[in-house]
Amino acid sequence: MIGRLRGTLVYKQPPWLMLDVGGVGYELEVPMSTLCELPGPGAEVTLFTHYAVKEDGAALYGFLTEAERRLFRDVQRVSGIGARIALAILSGVSVDEFARLVASSDVTALTRIPGIGKRTAERIVVELRDRAAEIGGGARPPGAAAAGDAQAEASVALQQLGYKPAEIGRLLRDAPPGLAAEALIRHALRAALKH
User: Domains in the chain, please, with CATH?
Assistant: First the structure.
């Protein structure tokens, strides 16, 4: 899997750009938030990437920050949301603003993002509300960054094991502070067995 690329920006043509990495040109689809922050062609840039294999081919998506890539992946776990809507979300609001809208259950504001209707906005709120602080991450104090990263890592691992976001929030809620991701996963699995 391709997780990050560093190379020379060849061109920007919304929503695409091309990055020359060691003589190989990678075409990436990016949200407008990333595209607007990038320098002009010829500059060296580093992008976090998400590689997706679909029925009709493969796609490579690029993001300026890890938080953008994480949000892109998280929102696609919501029923009915694919890459197009995930990119629209990132193009319409910042990661922190999205987390704030979800935490405050602001369905009306979410429907202002192109491609998101009322039902989709409601699903986003229901399925991601428990993880809003984790998605935003901006409100954490500096000393809590490692704990938040451990929580995020544990959440992703638990989702890959088949747990739903609401279940994960419940399982991790009572975990002692400061645990590493592996310890959080063990704690959550033990908690799941008790219920």
Answer: 4-63 (2.40.50.140), 66-136 (1.10.150.20), 142-194 (1.10.8.10)
